[in-house]
Amino acid sequence: MTHTSRRMHVIALMAALLVPGARASMAQPRDADSGITVYDDVNFGGAAATFRSDIPDLRNVRMNDRISSLRVAPGDRWEVCEDTFYHGRCIIVSGSEIDLRASGLNDAITSLRRVETRGYSRGRDDREVRGAAGLRAWDDVNFGGEAAAFSGDVADLREFRFNDRISSLQVPPGESWEVCEDTYFAGRCIIVSGSEPDLRRRGLNDAITSIRRVSDGRRDGDDRRDGFFPPPQPRGEIVLFDRTGYRGAAQRVRDAAAGLGQFSNQAQSAQILDGDWELCEEPRWGGRCVRISSSVPDLQRLGLRGVASVRPLERRR
User: Fold this and answer.
1) Which residue ranges form the domains of the chain, and what is each CATH number?
2) CA 131: distance to chain centroid?
3) Using one digit for the tens of pLDDT, what is the confidence trace for 157-209?
């Protein structure tokens, strides 16, 4: 048996024996049928292992600090972190990551876990979400195209890759839902009940980014100008510096900032004073985003092209 073959055999054995719910595989499937499949080389090459349950310490299966690419099963989202027990720098991944050098996590992942998506289902058409509870949405008018169903509030539809895509929707009898242009129920919002076969009539076609169920007391067309305000958002405090090592000019941020003005793309280091934060390449939390829970002396290692917007996040439990 060659050295490479022995190594692959050991990985498979350790994954099978030491971690319940983990299955190591030397095959290279086009997509994992469920869970997350990780590879020790870029472009889905080298040894592979598939995990369907949380792994707080990849050292137990000899896969820590080795992962260079990965695939996530359709509909799943996973958090991958530098340190054990989901500490250090973490990012949320879905779909495929062909080369983790782009995110600064190549050969650096030590723990991973599934991000819960309860209350969400998705299908290629209406048949696959028919009968689902809550709001149903389609990416084409007249209830056509890809469909998704949501039974709970979603502050940011980018998490499900369904933002700025909804063209028609349907709400169950007796329910009312608020749909909004921006994350966290900001921007222009309308209240919908019943069916909306063509959101072009409402001026929100391909523009919805957050949704939530509302009480029956709300009127169709209400917005914050009518005295309605979104619930409290996470709070925190972060200081951005235009030089590495927490030096140079600084900008302090305490709430979500959809833009950083003249400081946009100037930050080179970030000092967290309170909370967890999301840093994004583009304004309004667009582009690639990275979650950080500790100060970062050199933001280049995050793999971001720049920092144009930031916001505090709910603390991990």
Assistant:
1) 3-114 (2.60.20.10), 120-226 (2.60.20.10), 237-313 (2.60.20.10)
2) 26
3) 877 778 899 999 998 888 888 898 887 777 788 888 888 999 988 888 999 98
